[in-house]
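2024-03-11 09:14:02 DEBUG pipeline.ingest accepted 1 chain
2024-03-11 09:14:02 DEBUG pipeline.ingest length=333
2024-03-11 09:14:03 DEBUG pipeline.predict start
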Amino acid sequence: MSGKSGFDNFPNELYLSIFDYLNIIDILYSFSNLNYRINNLLKTYYRFTLKHVDLTKLNPNVFKYYCLEKQINNDIHSIKLNDYQFKYLTFSSNNRLIKLNLLLENDYYLHSKEQFIFEYLQILIVQHNALTWKKPFIICQNLKQVQIHLKNHFDLIELLNCLPIVEKVDATINYDVNRENCLTNNCYYSNKLIDFSYIIHSNNGLVYFVTDYSIIESLVKQLNNLIKLRLYIIGCINTIIDGSRLENNLFNYLPKLEEFDFFIQSYGGYEIKSMDQFRSFKWNFASYTNQLTDMHFLFTLPFKFQRIDQCINEYFIHGIKTTFQSKFTYLLY
């Protein structure tokens, strides 16, 4: 009488060897709930102890199946997903998520019932498109690092007020940096915030809004413990930024500042005739005026940002003024 053999009779070591050749999601999709023995084996498999999953490349059918694995979801510490997946993925109130990475294919509105997921996060990343939410936003007691794309300055103000111990904030703002949309009364910001980045999104080079730079100044000067500061400001009109304004409205309020990267674009105003007023700073500056468009630019060198909006043309290299006495072109790259 011949013995009966089958997949269920394989030793655990063979299953584990098979798992090593598959990604985490394939393992869950193919083996989860196969039987009691495999479920117990999955719980002890060492790659699941990493507690991180990337769902962004799943096809819809696999994703829907994964959503049923609520028991496993509650053990995940770090997850990466898009806005469609975030909308349909179910998290329980006792989840252990500490890092959330959202790749938004469209602007996403966060309803009140969804906000609990942010309560215990330590790291939040929102990329590509803007996140907005039902007011008021939940206070995130544990969030220490934020990289986020927002629609306007007011949302950033509200978010900062909900982050009592945040240490690093990298914010990209779409538009609406003006007085009408930026109420800043009774604001309390984390005294642990040491690294702050404020980038105005160019919408693929199209600037259809007006930026009030003084609004951004008012925010930054309250972040007294900053060590690193990055500002990329476009869309200003008749905004004059000289050495005196930088010193009196920013640097005097930031005594611990060590790293400073800066770019500002303004329509109208006046051309900076001399760079002498910037030579006393420990950062190197450059300025350029496009005479045809009456656009003025001031920025630090070496240039650390990914783009130079409306700035580069055939006259740029020859028309730029800097605090350097020698050639500087290499600092732009």
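2024-03-11 09:14:41 DEBUG pipeline.report The radius of gyration is 25 Å.
2024-03-11 09:14:41 DEBUG pipeline.predict end
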